[in-house]
Every structure is written in structure tokens, then in C-alpha cells.
Design a protein that fits this description.
Elements (H helix, E strand, L loop, with lengths): L1 E7 L1 H4 L2 H13 L3 E6 L4 H8 L6 E2 L2 E2 L3 H25 L4 E4 L7 E5 L11 E6 L1 H9 L3 E4 L2 E3 L5 E3 L2 H12 L4 E7 L18 E2 L1 H10 L7 H12 L4 E5 L4 H5 L5 E3 L3
Parallel strand pairs: 1-2, 1-11, 2-8, 5-8, 11-13, 12-14
Antiparallel strand pairs: 3-4, 6-7, 9-10, 13-14
């Protein structure tokens, strides 16, 4: 039995018309599916409006107590429920979740030798039995990037990580396709040329690409995560544009990361 886990980012979340078009496409994808969304720029905008200063380190939000309140409201409230409502309007029976709902994702507060990230979570456990039960009831799951520690503390958690951990957790019972969507059409041989998409990358070819400097540094963490997902049991990882979702899932577009 197959399940598709699709992660979308701010380029879709922040654009009302692009989000609407994506939901049309996503709702029409056949089979069991999970959508993981980030927060886009809305949390920063709300924080600025409330006078709560935001601090980013290496693209990651430092989450103090006030910021945690904001991202919880924005991610699991406004964004998540608007997506769920949009899917319901398209005939897709969706349930919006955070990691705290049904103890779906358990995390711990991140520790770092030099940086205090605040209330940021690193995932410890995915409740695969709960998620499997919901998928078998033909529910589409929509995850906001908020988890919990099991002791009453909510935690802001990277959406890419949530998608990967969900894929890993469900891979024992499903054939999982994990899709990371972003602004480019896939992994490019030439960062300036959208037509230079590499259609398929296996481990040996990845090492060649890194050694030759053919792929730019910003893509390496994404690919490292993709291969980590494969090693944990995920069947395939696909990188490409959310607007091309049907062709991504069939391997016609984007970059597919495979075992061999």
C-alpha cells in the first residue's frame, strides 16, 4: 500500500493564488497522502505587528516563549485550518494535526553547545499506529510544524524534519514516496538553468556530483536528508516544484533520489 508525503514551503504558503492552485492539484492526487506545511512569512509579520522581535540563526527561528505562542497560533491555527478547509471544499477529507494531537509526534527541546534555540524541538518518536489508522480511514493528514515533549510543552519543529520523520515512521507499513517541493524544478546541474534538472540521483552519482562541485552547497543538506530517509526505509524521495506534483509523483519531472 502506498502513501505520498508532500512537504510545501513558504513559496506556496505565502501566495494565496498559488496555494489555491496547489490545493486543487493535491486534492486530486489519488491514494493515501499526507501534507506537511511550513509557516511562511506570516509568523514573522504577526510577530512584528505585536512588537515581538524575531531572531534567525542559519535560517532557523530562535523560538522564545512569546514567539512560540505566535508560531503555534499561526502554524497550527490560521495556516493549518485554512488548508484543511480548502481541502474539504475540494472533496478531500482532511484532518489538521500537530505533533501534540493524539501524541502524533514526540520531541525533545533542542540542546546546542553554543546557541540557545529556545522552544525548538527535535523529533524522538512518530505515532505510526495512530497515523496508519487515520490513513486507513481514508483521511488526508495535514501537519503543522509544531510538536510536543509529552510533558505539556509545545515545540517549534522544522517542517522538512517532520516530513522526513513521518516518512520514516510510516515506511514499515507503507511504500512511502516523500516529496520536498521548493522553488526550483529539481536538483540542477547548473543553478542558473532550470532546464538542467537531474532526473535521478543514486548514492554513487551523488558522490560524483559533490566531488566535482556540480551541485551548489545549499542543496547538499537537502540531499543528505533525502539519502538518510532512503536508508531509514523510505522507498523514494522526490525534489521539485509543488506546481508539478502529479508529474513529480510519476517520475516525469523533478529529481528522484533512489537507492540504486
Amino acid at each position: 500500500m502506498q502513501v505520498s508525503i508532500i512537504k510545501i514551503g513558504g513559496n506556496i504558503i505565502d501566495d494565496e493564488s498559488r496555494l489555491a492552485a496547489f490545493l486543487d492539484t493535491f486534492a486530486a492526487v489519488p491514494g493515501k497522502k499526507v501534507l506537511v506545511h511550513g509557516g511562511g512569512k506570516l509568523a514573522t509579520k504577526v510577530a512584528e505587528g505585536l512588537g515581538v522581535q524575531q531572531q534567525m540563526v542559519d535560517g532557523r527561528r530562535i523560538t522564545d516563549a512569546e514567539t512560540l505562542k505566535i508560531v503555534t497560533m499561526v502554524y497550527s491555527g490560521t495556516i493549518n485550518k485554512n488548508i484543511v478547509a480548502g481541502l474539504q471544499a475540494r472533496g478531500c477529507d482532511a484532518i489538521g494535526l500537530t505533533g501534540a494531537d493524539g501524541n502524533a509526534i514526540l520531541s525533545h527541546k533542542r540542546t546546542h553547545p553554543t546557541i540557545d534555540y529556545g522552544y525548538v524541538g527535535d523529533v524522538d518518536m512518530v505515532n505510526s499506529s495512530l497515523l496508519t489508522s487515520l490513513l486507513l480511514l481514508d483521511k488526508t493528514l495535514v501537519f503543522a510544524p509544531i510538536t510536543h515533549d509529552g510533558k505539556g510543552q509545545l515545540l517549534n519543529t522544522n517542517a522538512d524534519t517532520i516530513a522526513q520523520e513521518l516518512a520514516r515512521g510510516l515506511s514499515s507499513g507503507f511504500e512511502v514516496s516523500l516529496v520536498y517541493s521548493f522553488e526550483k524544478s529539481g536538483v540542477l546541474l547548473n543553478a542558473e538553468d532550470e532546464s538542467s534538472v537531474i532526473s535521478r540521483i543514486h548514492p554513487a552519482y551523488y558522490e560524483e556530483l559533490k566531488a566535482s562541485g556540480a551541485i551548489f552547497a545549499g542543496m547538499i543538506p537537502k540531499l543528505d536528508n533525502a539519502f538518510a530517509a532512503l536508508r531509514s526505509g523510505v522507498a523514494r524521495v522526490i525534489i521539485g516544484k509543488a506546481e508539478e506534483l502529479p508529474s513529480l509523483l510519476t517520475g516525469v519531472s523533478g529529481t528522484t533520489i533512489t537507492h540504486a
